[in-house]
Specification:
It contains 2 helices and 11 strands; from the N terminus they run ααβββββββββββ. By secondary structure, the protein is an alpha+beta fold. The protein has a 10-stranded antiparallel barrel.
């Protein structure tokens, strides 16, 4: 009986290893995801309020050029969100994003416009990472894999709201689907990406 169990385990591990090799990510996969997320967006929050959301590449000199983004959101001239995102492909279709707070966020306000500013710092300036998973739905299109879902660390939305994120480079948009806490009403927020290339 033990021999059969060992044999089945060996077969399973072999098949799993083969499947992982078949679906391994390439540098091009990492680059495509990274470049789809980066950019400057105008997000319509409601009829009278918009927010600017910036996803800026940083630390491209740390070895993996397609790994780190600084995120800053500004609403009514106030910074309402600052995070650093670390992107790690799991395979060619699934991408883990770790979302970090900054130990001294005030020091980095407005620095999305000067990505080289971050070269004087290391990831030791980060704290309390949370995880999100994105799935590739087509070329240059990615969305959170379970959604809408609560993300308590996205603090520019009311606590308890359900959120779902989608980035689509082809139509230059960043989408947020939101369900306010205690309702079933879906509010589809849509951000327009302003290309700076």
């Amino acid at each position: 009986m033990k021999k059969i169990a060992l044999l089945l385990t060996a077969i399973f591990l072999t098949i799993s290893g083969f499947a992982q090799k078949q679906d391994a990510f390439t540098e091009e996969d990492a680059k495509q995801f990274y470049r789809t997320m980066q950019g400057d967006y105008v997000m319509q929050v409601n009829d009278s309020t918009t927010a600017m959301v910036h996803f800026t590449p940083i630390w491209e000199n740390l070895g993996n050029r397609f790994q780190w983004l600084y995120l800053e959101a500004v609403m009514d001239k106030q910074v309402v969100l600052q995070k650093v995102l670390e992107m790690t492909p799991k395979n060619s279709k699934i991408f883990m994003v770790k979302v970090y707070d900054l130990k001294n966020p005030q020091q980095f306000v407005g620095k999305w416009a000067n990505r080289n500013y971050f070269d004087g710092f290391t990831p030791s300036m980060l704290k309390s990472g949370k995880r999100m998973t994105f799935v590739k739905t087509s070329d240059f299109s990615y969305q959170t894999n379970v959604g809408p879902k609560r993300f308590g660390f996205i603090d520019c939305f009311p606590k308890g709201d359900l959120l779902h994120f989608k980035f689509v480079q082809e139509d230059e948009r960043f989408y947020i689907k939101r369900i306010p806490k205690g309702t079933n009403r879906i509010l589809g927020y849509q951000g327009l990406k302003e290309l700076t290339d």
